[in-house]
């Protein structure tokens, strides 16, 4: 057992009642430092009641005091026989009531951008049922017309590391089966860190050579164009017709 029971509630209590650093609390509770900062800012774990680790035999007051004096000290979890086996419990992921209405949107996002994930993997990620996932896959869900795909990580339904692990597992299973993958599927199967750290994509072979294509003409073509040397400031010059003999003949006919 390397984490306290009710880790997020314990982190809430430590943020509110101690001067420990975010890193110390995160290391003790198994949370990211930025997630602990979000708890302090009121953006994460809204409405979660703090869980006193001292009263629940997970920490001692002396251990907390020692860590407050030394920012480099890591909190040590006190042995608690009642907490043994807590991490090994299996069951559906618990989703707070305030976020349950967002689960269909997250399922739609996973189905759209990671279709390689199985129903079991999606159910484990965000704590939903397989019939709900199937109805969204088949677009027979009662509210499908009003649903929008939203990243479950942004909604706090799962962690980015958990999503990446599920995608990598799906990628390994896909490779094991030997099924051919398109470029689009291969792009979806890589993790976020790999996609952000990769090189810029190159143009397809069918479009090679178009990167230097320009719609503007060359300077040589401009020089070959004929120039109009007439003075454009004199507008009457455009309407002056050349004199010829026909005009004189017309004048003589009018006189007769």
Overall shape? elongated
Distance between the termini: 125 Å
Report the β-strand fraction as a percent range. under 5%
Rounded average pLDDT: 75
Helix share of residues? 40-55%
Q: Report on the biggest sheet.
A: none
Biased composition (Acidic residues): 244-256
Biased composition (Basic and acidic residues): 227-236
Pfam family, one: TrcR
Organism: Jannaschia seohaensis
Structural commentary:
The protein is mainly α. Among the domains are: 7-83, no CATH class; 97-194, no CATH class. 45% of the residues lie in helices and 0% in strands. The protein has helices spanning 7-17, 22-29, 33-41, 61-69, 103-113, 119-126, 130-137, 152-155, 160-177, 183-189, 192-197, 219-224, 245-255. The protein is elongated. Mean pLDDT is 75; it is low at 198-202.
């Amino acid at each position: 057992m390397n984490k306290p029971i009710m880790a997020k509630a314990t982190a809430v209590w430590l943020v509110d009642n101690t001067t420990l650093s975010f890193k110390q609390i995160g290391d003790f509770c198994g949370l990211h430092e930025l997630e602990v900062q979000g708890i302090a800012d009121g953006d994460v774990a809204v409405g979660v009641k703090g869980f006193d680790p001292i009263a629940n035999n997970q920490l001692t007051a002396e251990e907390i005091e020692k860590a407050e004096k030394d920012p480099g000290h890591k909190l040590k979890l006190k042995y608690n026989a009642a907490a043994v086996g807590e991490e090994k419990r299996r069951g559906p992921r618990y989703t707070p009531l305030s976020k349950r209405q967002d689960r269909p949107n997250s399922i739609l996002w996973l189905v759209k951008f990671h279709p390689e994930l199985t129903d079991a993997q999606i159910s484990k990620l965000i704590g939903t049922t397989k019939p709900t996932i199937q109805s969204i896959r088949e677009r027979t869900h009662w509210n499908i017309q009003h649903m929008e795909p939203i990243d479950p990580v942004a909604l706090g339904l799962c962690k980015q590391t958990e999503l990446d692990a599920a995608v990598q597992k799906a990628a390994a299973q896909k490779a094991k089966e030997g099924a051919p993958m398109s470029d689009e599927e291969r792009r979806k199967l890589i993790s976020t860190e790999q996609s952000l750290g990769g090189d810029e994509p190159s143009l397809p072979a069918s479009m090679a050579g178009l990167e230097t294509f320009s719609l503007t003409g060359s300077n040589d073509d401009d020089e070959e164009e004929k120039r109009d040397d007439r003075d454009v400031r004199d507008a009457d010059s455009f309407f002056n017709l050349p004199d010829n003999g026909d005009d004189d003949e017309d004048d003589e006919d009018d006189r007769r």
